[in-house]
Specification:
Number of helices: 7
Radius of gyration: 34 Å
Oligomer: single chain
Shape: rod-shaped
Distance between the termini: 114 Å
Number of strands: 28
Length: 495
């Protein structure tokens, strides 16, 4: 009897295989609302169910004017007859080779004109899908936007089916900055009408990301966080740690940590940051903005509004100036920050517009501080014989950074007895200065020295005094940050 049963199944396999083949095609087309093309499909039912195929292509809603929704070079599936006749049918394992998924973002639509009819349950559930080497591409609805591509070196899905959420574990290779991403989570149920509305959630770990691919910065970044939403709008919360962050222009390494909240458009990579909070040294920067692309231009552009309320000047200078910070003090600033991420040095590509306020600043080099102390003493009318006081400097001003050159306007520098107003340029890479302005002294010129010099200067006091009070001098600051040069700028007219 057993031999007769086996022979009957073997004889009927060919006809049953055709029915299974037709059912597979019918189910895929219904569940993904797509037209199916397939080069080969072989079904074997004895001693277990095995399905193999090549050249599978699913055209979403039959469209051929856009990339196909799914492309699979080769696939294999295994299950048992008992699992196959369950409702829904269960497939034990599916392996996919050369999987490509193209998600077309839908353009904004008006209000819905009715409730969608409930979908019929799927005809099958796959217990496990292995699709190593997969490629997922999301295609923006706006013309000119670059597609967002995810290359997934390892991917395992559990409980897969178009009408249900499936759990996943994946390993991705991030392109820029290069590094490995490990992520686990849930994906689905699949939204056949609008794939970009498919839910996704999970946790991620990003390790050993080399920031050196962005010219002008260096460091190794790590990040952990979680995400939830739909493909077209994913909310991400996480933090980053870069213990050796540096701007190449300075070369000083600092420990940079951030916490962030972001809304990511998974169809084109546009990311809204609200906020990013960065910590280095004793300084905290809070920033809000967007990371986006420009149609027709390579790379991305970071546009941020950044603020520091109770920061430290030495922390900021450690990032921007070679060697030890030349000054210490308290700083507050507000700046518009625009950085195109292209093959260009960050210090040249970065654009800044803002204002700053520095209080109680002092130079770290004794000779530089002594010059400021003497300037203050002379401005108050103290002579060389008077004891030098150690004074603090206050700065404030507006700035604009373009092509590695900082242009200052309304730059004010004050110490006891002296108030200086300047404008001009400062070059980041070599520290060259070219600043012009006015210095207003509390004392008259003749009171800044003694003896015969003081006697001679009394004759010119009226020319450099304003309303009979202290001296007003046009000045020019040149040289470099390490060796500044101060002098009179007699061609400059006082305001």
């Amino acid at each position: 009897m057993i031999l007769i049963l086996v022979a009957a199944v073997a004889i009927g396999t060919r006809g049953l295989s055709e029915r299974v083949r037709a059912e597979i095609i019918k189910s895929l087309e219904k569940d993904f609302e797509s037209r199916l093309e397939i080069k080969t499909l072989d079904v074997s039912l004895f001693p277990s169910v095995n399905v193999t195929g090549t050249g599978l292509v699913l055209h979403h809603k039959g469209r051929t004017d856009i990339p196909p929704l799914i492309v699979i070079d080769r696939f294999t599936a295994q299950t048992s007859l008992l699992s196959l006749i369950r409702i829904p049918a269960h497939v034990s394992e599916v392996r996919l080779e050369g999987l490509q998924v193209h998600v077309q973002a839908e353009a904004e639509k008006g209000a819905a004109d009715g409730t969608k009819p409930p979908k019929a349950p799927s005809n099958f559930v796959i217990d496990r899908v292995i699709a190593d080497g997969a490629r997922v591409e999301t295609i923006p609805s706006k013309p000119g936007k670059e597609p967002l591509v995810w290359r997934i070196s390892k991917l395992t899905l559990s409980g897969a089916g178009p009408d249900r959420a499936m759990s996943f574990r994946a390993t991705l290779t991030n392109a820029r900055p290069p590094g490995g991403i490990e992520t686990t989570g849930s994906f689905g149920p699949w939204q056949a009408d609008e794939p970009s509305e498919t839910p996704v959630s999970g946790k991620y770990t990003f390790r050993n990301a080399n920031l050196g691919v962005f010219h002008g910065i260096s460091g190794t970044l790590a990040s952990v966080g979680d995400y939830t939403g739909v493909l077209q709008q994913i909310e991400v919360k996480g933090n980053t740690d870069t213990p050796d962050f540096a701007l190449t222009i300075a070369g000083n390494r600092v420990s940079l940590k951030t916490e962030f909240h972001a809304i990511v458009d998974g169809t084109n990579g546009t990311t809204k940051l609200d906020p990013v909070i960065a910590h280095f040294g004793r300084t905290t920067v809070t920033a809000r903005g967007i990371v986006d692309t420009t149609p027709g231009q390579p790379g991305k552009i970071i546009s941020l509004d950044s603020r520091v309320q109770h920061g430290r000047l030495e922390d900021m200078l450690r990032l921007a100036v070679k060697g030890p910070p030349p000054m210490t003090g308290a700083i507050a600033y507000h700046a518009k920050f625009v950085l195109p991420l292209m093959n260009e040095d960050v210090s040249k590509a970065l654009r800044l517009d803002g204002a700053f306020d520095v209080e109680a600043a002092q130079f770290t080099k004794p000779d530089a501080q002594q010059k400021v102390d003497k300037l203050s003493n002379r401005g108050r009318g103290q002579t060389d014989d008077a004891a030098d006081d150690v004074v603090a400097s206050n700065f404030r001003g507006k700035f604009a950074l373009r092509d590695g050159v900082m242009h200052f306007t309304d730059l004010a520098f004050t110490v006891p007895g002296v108030a200086v107003q300047l404008s001009g340029d400062y070059t980041l890479d070599d520290g060259r200065m070219d600043l012009h302005g006015m210095a207003r002294l509390q004392a008259k010129l003749s009171q800044t020295t003694t003896g015969f010099k003081s006697f001679l200067l009394k004759a010119v006091d009226p020319f450099f005094s304003k309303k009979g009070k202290g001296a007003v001098l046009p000045i020019h600051i040149s040289g470099t940050r390490d060796s500044p040069s101060f002098g009179l700028d007699l061609g400059h007219k006082a305001k």
